[in-house]
Amino acid sequence: xxxxxxxxxxxxxxxxxxxxxxxxPSALATARPATVLAGSGRPGGALPGSGAPxxxxxxxxxxxxxxPAASCAEPNCDVAYHxxxxxxxxxxxxxxxxxxxxxxxxxxxxxxxxxxxYKGLGAAPDTWSLTAAQYGDGKGSPAFGKALYAGxxxxxxxxxxxxxxxxxxxxxDKGRKDFGIKPGAMENSLIVxxxxxxxxxxxxxxxxxxxxxxxxxxxxRTGYCAFHDYDLYASGSKRIFLPWVNxxxxxxxxxxxxEGYINKPGVYDGFSLAAGHxxxxxxxxxxxxxxYDGKDKVSGGGEIADKCAWGGAAWGGHxxxxxxxxxxxKFAMQSLWSNAAGACVMSGKLTxxxxxxxxxxxxxxxxxSLPITARQSGRARLTFKAxxxxxGLSIGKYSGKITGTVKAPKGTFHAKVTVSYxxxxxxxxxxxxxS
Length: 435
Fold this sequence. Notes:
Layout: H1 8-23, E1 35-39, E2 45-48, E3 80-81, E4 91-97, H2 100-103, H3 105-120, E5 149-155, H4 165-179, E6 189-195, E7 224-235, E8 238-246, H5 269-284, E9 291-292, E10 321-326, E11 329-334, E12 336-338, E13 343-345, E14 352-354, E15 360-362, E16 367-371, E17 374-376, E18 383-387, E19 393-395, E20 401-405, E21 411-421, E22 424-434
Parallel strand pairs: 4-5, 4-6, 6-8, 15-22
Antiparallel strand pairs: 1-7, 2-7, 3-9, 7-8, 10-11, 12-13, 14-17, 16-20, 18-21, 19-20, 21-22
């Protein structure tokens, strides 16, 4: 639910915002180890309303390092890697902006809902997040297994009368300081900015402003429900990014941003739908330079959540959606695009089976070539690891073939082979007699 917000309509506004930030760095450079340069000047993605048609987004040209599959029809084509970073160890910080979060009933309910959502997201039994684990960069892949929640704070100040992109850049930076996020941890952090109800926005994306702008549900259903972006900092000769999400008060947009979309009454459905959408896209494409399908002109953004937004209803698709079960409860959620499955999925898990070889018998000095057969329900890259093999033998990390020349000592060895993919593994054991 993220329609890419790199649009011609907003280009002038965003460029002006960037210039403003760059022209007044002193306001941001006091007593800190890194100096903020600016926001990106182009929101990384925007979730359209549930009734909004998909829109074409504009991106900077990039040559993918990994190309999507050729035989597919958009938007059901793989996302490609464009060389940028991903978030390796996601830590989500919730920044509730405005005094209503302390007193208003709707805000209190949303605060509790979002906090419980992130306290469960990423940890078992959550398998929805695991889809993102397949999208890595040169330094590794997003890691899950523990809750993404890293803390929450309230900024009691009232948001400006018309929130600009610069205001969000500054608020994210304020959150960085309030949470005590150090430069070395910034690129593994994600600040979710949640302004109070009734907030007005001037920052625009492809379809316009927030659908529930100023607390008034847009009858036209055009605009966005949320988007992600990042702040950029200088620390010595390095450039450091701090990802963030703008998550407006979803109830201001009502059903157009997901209220009651899955559950009845489902008052807070829109919060988990939009937050989950933007979080996974921020993790896999934090600077709008990593994982997306640049040829996707159908979903409007081409990131892993865009392709599955609102079940694909805007383009006649039938992608899955529903509640996901976390350790903190059930939460409304859309599916995510999986290159490994070639489809929008509600779980990153694949079925993986490994065929156990019969007992092997080899003489000293014998040359060995034994393939380990693994079958999966998708097309994920598999890795193979073996222990307990006779001396002189090893297994190919990606081929799964055990090769080498058997060396002393003789005896019975108990081989153990583990086959892994981004979200799971399977292990077999078998005997190997050396005579």
